[in-house]
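Researcher: Go.
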Amino acid sequence: MGGHNRVISLYFSDIAGFTRISETMSPDKVVAYLGEYLQEMTSIIEAEHGAVDKFIGDGILALFNAPMDVEDHAAAVCRAALKSQDRLKVLQEQWVQLSLEPLHARIGVHTGEVIVGNIGTPDRFEYTVAGDAVNLASRLEGLSKVYGTRIIGSEATRAAAGAEFEWRTLDRVAVLGRSAGTLVSELLGEVKNVNPLVLEARDLYERGLYDYQFGRFAEASEQFRAACVLRRDDFAAQMMANRASRLQLEPPTDGWNGVYQATTK
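Model: Structure:
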């Protein structure tokens, strides 16, 4: 029994709309369908030296750098997240051919200090993690619903993962349960493996975000909408353009700091 402090990287995923999907299927089919998905994702996580801590319904909590040492755990969690989404694309095509509604996953990744060890009672315990970093990883996954993204990472993971990945800075957010803002980014892919059009749109978005943070809402809206022209399916850019336009019409009160206050998990 007992735990110790350790810096690890966390992978937290959830299936979008799984409750609704499962309502259309018999219980045995739900178990088989979910089991296939969980097995595929587990294989990818373990191939990147991660360890699945637990399944939470259709959610997955995985640890990188516990219980085994993983030197580049921040980069490893990013690779696992990207490969999970790539594998899902293949599975989605197969599921459609079988007349199944394809599953779509949201993933949050974060690097921070946690308590890891055998936690519980002498009669009932498990090797797991606890701490604020676990909660933040979960909140990052939930933010994907707000920004329409597949993978969101924290500033800590982005910094620790090194230069082999392309990111887009999304926003500064105070996640539910926190008052301070956290810089959050979308993981786009590995360097030299991202569509140049996506990177061009990313640059426009980040220029818009810079203007937005300094209260230049007209300029910000223009940059966000320019990003939308390059990527018409970019929900985040559309949302931020609309938010900037609203703030241009109804300027915020004194003390506004550009932090978005999340109201849901």
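Model: The radius of gyration is 19 Å.
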